[in-house]
Design goal:
The complex is a heterodimer of chains A (375) and B (241).
Chain A (H helix, E strand, L loop, with lengths): L1 H15 L1 H24 L5 E6 L3 H9 L3 E6 L2 H9 L5 E6 L2 E6 L4 H40 L30 H31 L2 H6 L5 H30 L8 H23 L5 H5 L1 H11 L11 H7 L3 H15 L7 H21 L7
Parallel strand pairs in A: 1-2, 1-3
Antiparallel strand pairs in A: 3-4
Chain B lengths: L5 E10 L2 E11 L4 E5 L6 H9 L6 E6 L2 E2 L9 E4 L11 H11 L4 H14 L15 H13 L5 E5 L7 H16 L3 E6 L2 H4 L4 E6 L2 E6 L1 H8 L4 H9 L4
Parallel strand pairs in B: 3-8, 3-9, 6-7, 7-8
Antiparallel strand pairs in B: 1-2, 1-4, 4-5, 9-10
Classes of the chains: A alpha/beta (375), B alpha/beta (241).
Chain lengths: 375, 241
């Protein structure tokens, strides 16, 4: 029952620490909402293209492309000046059959957008030219036919209209972007980060204030201390996870194909891993500042291997690192639930690995307390 | 005769290459107050931590109530007060007491009575429901002592219990310690306040990792032919008077 006594004590301390509570609950939400704004704004890239001696039809085609504005310049010098002054993002110059393109290239996405727009405009332009020639030929043919008597009346109507494209999305809609892809992973990261930090600090504080020594001078068992901490922060993590998941889904409007409860469960499991991890690392820190030093070394790199950046494109040895990153597994599981509705039973590997992390770290913690009492 | 509360025999403790305790021999009998005095860094706290089983001896033996330490169960019979106050500041005095009473394994029925008792002893009854963060330094020390007294331990181990408290309160604490001793418990107390050493039953002088003298204050003074324990200490250290 000492476990419960420790749990109630830690919870009491937490509830009275309003500032920490605010950090745990409001900070992740604030960041998520901010990220949503940032990413949804940059969804469409607007480019301004300067053209020099480009045919009128091509200019028109370019101008019709979405998010592209065309400015015509008489010569390249004027266009270059505009490019330099940041009035335009690229120059397209036509020299007879060939085109030369100059990009400001200060924003890679604008360069890509320009390339794509130009390619489309060019093919549309040549298609229109071909269409014109075809019409001419057809009319000439029809005239010829009319002059010929007894010709079969099978007047084949050539359909010259471009084929219509309809897009269907298995997950989300046309507005589904990068943010929607990284959100399930980011959600996990915030759960991990805040639980890690606060639980680590708590046990550290207990050590530096001397209460841990006093606690260990009673017949309390080491596992009772670890479990007491796990339970209290686990309860806090339940609320935090539910809140983060709800904000992500309801406020940011992320479509969840699978069960929301499963998303919460996965993140809760991650929170417990973070908890055990934070407690373990706090034994290697002598002050709050030293605890903070673990963040750039052990917490931030987790983002790189979490799946936000596609792991398939990484070198094999880099990929190997990702296997020891807890967020990779929770991110993978959460993504599968959110985007494809995979049930928990099919996520055995992810859940299994997270459980191994949890049990392993907890055992290390119980063992680690031996440093402060030899029995 | 009942077994001694603490027996340390030829205790050695090293931290890395540094030998903190060379050869410590010390006994604390039931019903006596033993003072452990020595300069800062002489290893007073290490002696205490080894006796409690927080540190493992590198040589020799540490037994409490006749049993080899470290031994978790025995901790229920020991009251410990560290140099730092070691209190949960966000909790009230009472909540601190309840928490540590539970940790010591006091049963639900006895907790309330035990808390009322120790609060009276350290004169904190009126302030029990206040948060510790609002306590003065002296109140924190008293609460800390109250926690150590919970459950009427047979052995009290106090690390500098009177640091930073006013003379009136220090008197009060000592009166209380005498009462505890008279009830049959034993007390091991570290201090570097020399006039406090006079109040103990036996004094152990810790110097250079060894107990260089261990006798009653009166015997020590006679042995070194000086008037006060402070002079004994200075003479032992080799400071010319």
């Amino acid at each position: 029952m000492r476990t419960f006594a420790i749990m109630t004590r830690v919870l009491k301390e937490l509830v009275r620490d309003k500032r920490t509570l605010t950090l745990m609950f409001l900070a992740p939400i604030f960041i998520l909402i901010l990220l949503n704004f940032v990413f949804s704004v940059s969804q469409s890239t607007n480019v301004t293209v300067g053209t020099v001696t480009v045919t009128q039809s091509l200019n028109r085609e370019l101008g019709q492309t979405k998010h592209v504005t065309v400015k015509t310049y008489a010569n390249k010098t004027a266009a270059k000046k505009a490019l330099k002054n940041d009035h335009i993002d690229a120059i397209i110059q036509q020299k007879k059959q060939n085109y030369s393109l100059t990009y400001a290239n200060t924003d890679a996405s604008k360069t890509t957008a320009t390339k794509l727009a130009f390619k489309n405009a060019l093919s549309a332009n040549s298609l229109a030219q071909m269409k014109g020639r075809l019409t001419l030929a057809t009319t000439a043919l029809a005239k010829l036919r009319q002059q010929l008597p007894n010709a079969p009346a099978t007047q084949q109507q050539t359909n010259l209209a471009a084929p219509k494209l309809t897009n269907h999305y298995v997950y989300g809609d046309a507005n589904t972007g990068f943010f929607d892809k990284i959100l399930p992973i980011l959600m996990g990261f915030f759960v991990f980060f805040f639980v890690f930090l606060i639980s680590g600090m708590a046990l550290l504080g207990e050590r530096t204030s001397g209460t841990l020594d006093r606690l260990l001078a009673t017949p309390v068992k080491r596992y009772e201390i670890v479990f007491g901490y796990m339970l209290s922060y686990g309860i806090l993590a339940i609320f935090q996870t539910i809140l983060i998941v709800m904000v992500t889904i309801l406020l940011l409007g992320v479509e969840v194909v699978g069960s929301i409860v499963n998303v919460v469960l996965i993140n809760l499991l991650l929170a417990l891993v973070a908890l055990a991890f934070g407690i373990l690392l706090s034994t290697f820190a002598n002050s709050e500042f030293q605890m903070m030093q673990f963040i750039p070394i052990l917490v931030i790199p987790q983002i790189f291997f979490s799946g936000i950046i596609p792991l398939d494109s990484m070198a094999n040895w880099v990929k190997a690192i990702s296997y020891v990153i807890p967020i990779k597994y929770s991110g993978d599981a959460a993504t599968q639930i959110i985007t494809r509705g995979v049930p928990l039973s099919s996520l055995g590997l992810d859940i299994g690995v997270l459980l191994i992390f949890l049990v392993g770290l907890t055992c290390l913690n119980i063992l680690g307390l031996r440093r402060y009492r030899k029995v | 005769m009942a077994s001694a509360s603490i027996t340390l025999t030829h205790l050695v403790k090293k931290f890395g290459p540094q030998t903190v305790l060379k050869d410590i021999n010390l006994t604390v009998q039931p019903g006596e107050i033993v003072g452990l005095i020595g300069p800062s860094g002489s290893g007073k706290s290490t002696v205490i931590k080894t006796a409690l089983g927080m540190e493992l001896a590198d040589g020799g033996q540490a037994t409490v109530f006749g049993q080899q330490m470290p031994q978790r169960q025995l901790l229920a019979r020991i009251g410990y007060m560290a140099q730092t106050d070691a209190l949960y500041e966000a909790l009230s005095g009472k909540e601190n007491l309840v928490f540590f009473a539970k940790m010591k394994g006091l049963t639900k029925t006895t907790i309330t009575a035990a808390i009322t008792h120790v609060a009276t002893v350290v004169d904190l009854t009126a302030d029990l429901n206040k948060r510790v963060s609002g306590y003065s330094g002296g109140m924190k020390r008293r609460l800390s002592l109250a926690i150590a007294l919970l459950g009427k331990p047979e052995l009290l181990i106090l690390d500098e219990p009177t640091v930073g408290i006013d003379p009136a309160l220090r008197r009060q604490v000592w009166r209380e310690l005498d009462k505890v001793r008279d009830a049959g418990s034993s007390i091991l107390i570290t201090t570097h306040v020399m006039d406090e050493a006079e109040l103990t039953d036996r004094v152990a002088l810790l110097l250079g990792g060894e107990v260089i003298a261990f006798a009653t204050p009166a015997q020590l003074k006679q042995q070194y032919q000086v008037a006060t324990i402070e002079d004994v200490f200075l003479k032992a250290e080799g400071v010319t008077l």
